């Protein structure tokens, strides 16, 4: 049984794959020409990659929560390529309403911020976006 965070991240990865942005295969190798979608750590290959990492933004005593997801992207040495990748992620997630992401109900998702990281050790362009997901998250001590 996957927990809330794992379910949400797997669901976001699946949405990005369904949108044709990249390939999410947690237990398989991603081809060098593909855009890989990874949870947390991005491997050195392929050149085009998306890394997803969750962090809490707002929790209360109710089941409503806002969870942030850092979307780290790299796309070779052409700055336009990483911008295009970021635009595709934006089109898939920004202002999307009332949907399921890995079994987690998402009332609304939106891009909160985006910034250039610069080049990695191999000269590939990188940037990061932060998306917020307003969700329903149950818990043992929450009021529903």
Q: Your description of this structure?
A:
- With 144 residues, this protein is α+β, with helices and mostly antiparallel strands.
- The chain has one domain: Phage tail protein-like (STM4215-like, 2-Layer Sandwich).
- 21% of the residues lie in helices and 44% in strands.
- It is built from 2 helices and 6 strands.
- It has helices at 4-18, 79-93, and strands at residues 35-39, 48-59, 64-75, 96-101, 104-119, 125-136.
- It has a 6-stranded mixed sheet.
- A hairpin with a 5-residue loop joins strand 5 (104-119) and strand 6 (125-136).
- It is globular, with a radius of gyration of 15 Å.
Task: Write a brief structural summary.
The protein has 144 residues and is of the alpha+beta class.
List the helices and strands and how they pair.
Blueprint: H1 4-18, E1 35-39, E2 48-59, E3 64-75, H2 79-93, E4 96-101, E5 104-119, E6 125-136
Parallel strand pairs: 1-2
Antiparallel strand pairs: 2-3, 3-6, 4-5, 5-6
Biggest sheet, open or closed, and with what strands and sense?
6 strands, mixed
CATH topology descriptor: STM4215-like
Please give the CATH class: Alpha Beta
> What is the strand content?
35-45%
The number of helices is 2
* Helix proportion range: 10-25%
Question: Which CATH-level-2 architecture?
Answer: 2-Layer Sandwich
- Total domain count: 1
| Overall 3D shape | globular
Structural classification: alpha+beta
The N- and C-terminal alpha carbons lie at a distance of 22 Å
What Rg, in angstroms, do the CA atoms define?
Answer: 15 Å
Compute the average pLDDT.
Answer: 91
Q: How is the largest sheet built, in terms of strand order?
A: 1-2-3-6-5-4
Low-confidence stretches at least 5 residues in length (pLDDT < 50)?
none
The CATH superfamily title: Phage tail protein-like
**What is the ordering of alpha helices and beta strands?**
HEEEHEEE
Strand tally: 6
């Amino acid at each position: 049984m996957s927990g809330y965070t794992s379910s949400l991240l797997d669901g976001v990865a699946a949405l990005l794959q369904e949108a044709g942005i990249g390939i999410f295969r947690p237990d398989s190798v991603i081809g060098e020409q593909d855009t890989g979608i990874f949870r947390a750590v991005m491997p050195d290959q392929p050149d085009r990659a998306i890394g997803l990492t969750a962090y809490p933004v707002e929790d209360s005593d109710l089941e409503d929560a806002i969870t942030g997801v850092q979307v780290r992207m790299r796309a070779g040495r052409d700055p336009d390529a990483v911008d295009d990748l970021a635009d595709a992620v934006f089109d898939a997630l920004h202002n999307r309403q009332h949907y399921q992401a890995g079994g987690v109900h998402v009332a609304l998702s939106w891009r909160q911020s985006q910034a250039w990281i610069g080049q990695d050790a191999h000269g590939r362009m990188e940037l990061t976006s932060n998306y917020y997901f307003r969700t329903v998250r149950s818990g043992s001590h929450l009021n529903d």
